[in-house]
């Protein structure tokens, strides 16, 4: 265990523009891998690897872990409600959102303190980007998977409206948690204490 602690504490941490680019690339690779496989088992594995790599290279400790948990809970709940309401269906059938789709939420959540951090203090721009980017992401997802919009017109509009509200709220939460005083902001001290 001592070797692992030394590896973790001496890890290169990517910050600044390089960190944002690395975070964006990691997100996009994971997003495409999950979407293209549409496999729950593969998606869980990809999400696990994504989170480990993310926290190793970029992670902001407990505050970011809390953010990821909150965004994932909100997102998974929202997806289930959207499937139940008929905004989405799977291969023409009304079902619950598949697990592989739910795995996109923690992957997305890792971008809030990094790739999208420059939008944290710009709610109107974040809202516009959320509306357009959210709708386009879901449209791309429906073209690459068996998930379909219940209505090709209203589905993207509903998603755009939701993302116009949610995206700036997620970023505001990320900004708040980034500045919250946390003695374990970095997770290495917690690992050290747990292993002592």
The arrangement of helices and strands along the chain is: HHHHEHHHEHH
Intertermini distance: 10 Å
Largest sheet: 2 strands, antiparallel
Find the structural class using helix and strand composition.
Answer: mainly alpha
Overall strand count: 2
User: What strand order characterises the main sheet?
Assistant: 1-2
Would you give an account of this structure?
The protein is mainly α and 196 residues long. The chain has one domain. The protein contains 9 helices and 2 strands, in the order ααααβαααβαα. The protein has helices spanning 2-9, 16-37, 40-57, 61-84, 99-102, 104-109, 123-144, 154-179, 188-195; strands at residues 88-90, 147-149. Strands 1-2 form a two-stranded antiparallel sheet. Helix 2 (16-37) packs antiparallel against helix 3 (40-57), helix 4 packs antiparallel against helix 8 (154-179) and helix 7 crosses helix 8 (154-179). The longest helix has 26 residues, at 154-179. Mean pLDDT is 88; it is low at 4-9.
Q: What key attributes describe this structure?
A:
196 residues; mainly alpha; globular
Fold blueprint:
Elements: H1 2-9, H2 16-37, H3 40-57, H4 61-84, E1 88-90, H5 99-102, H6 104-109, H7 123-144, E2 147-149, H8 154-179, H9 188-195
Antiparallel strand pairs: 1-2
